[in-house]
Design brief:
homodimer; mainly alpha; Arc Repressor Mutant, subunit A; Tetracycline Repressor, domain 2; 2 domains; 69% helix; DNA-binding
Chain lengths: 191, 191
DNA sequence: AGTGTTGATGACATGACGTGTCATCACGTA
DNA sequence: TACGTGATGACACGTCATGTCATCAACACT
């Protein structure tokens, strides 16, 4: 199946990341990307839903992984530890790609529409956590709150992990953020 | 200043809400909106940054109000009460417009790009809360956490307020959600 | 070998979105 | 009366995104 060079999708993604880095996201056009990848414009939209999606499409399986990780935790485990354990299980894929993800985040933070897309990613993670908690029998509203806490926590740790100068692992930073949230929230809710 | 009918911006917003309700957001074109409002397409983009913005543009002053409300709270007030007080002060404008906001939320929930825009609104609220907390001297990371809690809490209460069948006031629901977050988080963080 | 199917891509047309630019002209002011 | 101001009209343009049909290597089956 294919008289063309293989790996069209990866070539597009690589070309896009290069061009976004060189000239910025908004100033880069889809024809420029596909020209560098040796393909036509139409083919770009066969692989990615829109121009932004090329920066996010390698994470399609994340929600499923989240739901699974949460659902299988022992029922006796406290909610906060379920969150922590789930996130730690999730991030093993992230650790080796730190430089790449750092470059990607720089691009995302430089453009409003990409920041919106990033927020949607966190929202999808939250929805997946709700599903995971419910599968293990957690009450609906509790699942909602726990999922928001979990996704917010991940966002904090992730941003910190990719901040310039940060050297600790994502796993360590998740633990640290868990502690921070625990202590700060205890203080916040103190009457 | 103006040889034309006044209130162009409002006419556009009204026409847009009608057409979105009748035919859906994606299926409605900007020329259709401006035709109903008796204006040209170009004028639409003079008043709104993009097609989605017409559903959000009446909330530009919200972030400033948030920052102000938080900054002026007495330093002795516990963080959680600062959040609650700030939100209660914020929502007096919302209460009388419940039907309109309910119609608007239905449109937003029907379209991915609008949901993203809605998430950005909550994110902007969170940033405004960070600014407010910092102005009153709160430590940076504490302000970050408190702001996330505050914006998430508002999102919960707001969605619930506009749910079909809900009759309680937004103010009541904020109090209820404050209690929910407090108890659930206490349970979540229990070791 | 020959034949048919499959699936990725090319090629082309089309419509909506969003912006830049200049002209127009009622209104306020001097 | 003259002038400046500011909102709008009119037009051109580039990009994004999608629909549709043609092409043709790889594969399966006979």
């Amino acid at each position: 199946m294919g008289r063309w060079e293989p790996g069209a999708r990866d070539r597009i993604a690589d070309a896009a990341l290069e061009l976004f880095t060189e000239g910025g996201f908004a100033a880069t056009t889809v024809p420029q990307i596909t020209a560098r990848a040796g393909l036509t414009t139409r083919t770009f939209f066969r692989h990615f839903a829109d121009k932004r999606d090329v920066l996010f499409a390698d994470e399609d399986e994340i929600p499923l992984a989240i739901t699974g990780l949460l659902a299988v935790a022992p029922l006796s485990t406290p909610t906060i530890e379920v969150i922590g354990g789930g996130l730690r299980g999730l991030v093993s894929d992230y650790e080796p790609r730190r430089d790449q993800l750092r470059a990607r985040l720089l691009i995302i933070q430089s453009d409003d529409s990409l920041r919106e897309r990033y927020l949607r990613k966190l929202s999808v993670m939250s929805a997946a956590m709700v599903a995971g908690f419910r599968q293990r029998g957690t009450d609906g509203r509790v699942a909602d709150v726990a999922a928001k806490i979990g996704s917010t926590l991940f966002g904090f740790a992730y941003d910190r992990w990719l901040a310039t100068g940060e050297t600790r692992s994502l796993s360590e930073l998740i633990d640290e953020t868990l502690d921070l949230f625990g202590s700060e929230f205890a203080a916040s809710t103190a009457t």
